[in-house]
């Protein structure tokens, strides 16, 4: 399972899916999903979202990209999906996160 975790982490921004990862393991989606959750204590979907948000936070802390670009570079399909996932994962909005981390100029870009 470590190889699969490394694969997921390395390809997190490429639109990784349960189907594609399960196929790599030779398991059905349901069997892979069940085994993944048992071994990691988190569902595949939750893990992928968590990793995408971690990538987004890294971009937000190291670049001046606009939020739409952060969202797309982090593997999200839409800005609304990014905002929803970010708030659910971190408890705050991307804008408030940036402001709390001292980037006052970022406010105008959102």
Distance between the termini: 39 Å
| Count of β-strands | 0
Average pLDDT rating: 89
Shape descriptor reads elongated
Question: Can you tell me the residue ranges where pLDDT is under 50 for at least 5 consecutive residues?
Answer: 104-110
Q: What Rg, in angstroms, do the CA atoms define?
A: 15 Å
Order of helices and strands: HHHHHHH
Number of helices: 7
What fraction, in percent, of the residue positions are helical?
55-70%
Proportion of residues in extended strands:
under 5%
Structural class: mainly alpha
Main sheet attributes: strand count, strand direction, barrel closure: none
SSE blueprint:
Elements: H1 2-10, H2 18-25, H3 29-40, H4 44-62, H5 67-73, H6 79-90, H7 94-100
Descriptors:
single chain; about 110 residues; mainly alpha; 7 helices
Structure explained in plain terms:
With 110 residues, the protein is mainly α. The protein has helices at residues 2-10, 18-25, 29-40, 44-62, 67-73, 79-90, 94-100. It starts with a helix and ends in a 10-residue tail after the last helix. The model is unreliable at 104-110 (pLDDT under 50).
């Amino acid at each position: 399972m470590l190889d699969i975790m490394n694969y997921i982490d390395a390809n997190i921004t490429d639109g990784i899916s349960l189907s594609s990862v399960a196929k790599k393991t030779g398991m059905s989606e349901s069997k892979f999903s069940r085994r993944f959750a048992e071994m990691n204590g988190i569902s595949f979907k939750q893990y992928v979202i968590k990793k995408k948000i971690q990538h987004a936070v890294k971009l937000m802390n190291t670049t001046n990209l606009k939020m739409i670009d952060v969202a797309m570079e982090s593997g999200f399909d839409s800005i609304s999906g990014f905002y929803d996932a970010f708030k659910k994962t971190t408890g705050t909005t991307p804008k408030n996160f940036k402001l709390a981390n001292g980037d006052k100029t970022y406010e105008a870009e959102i």
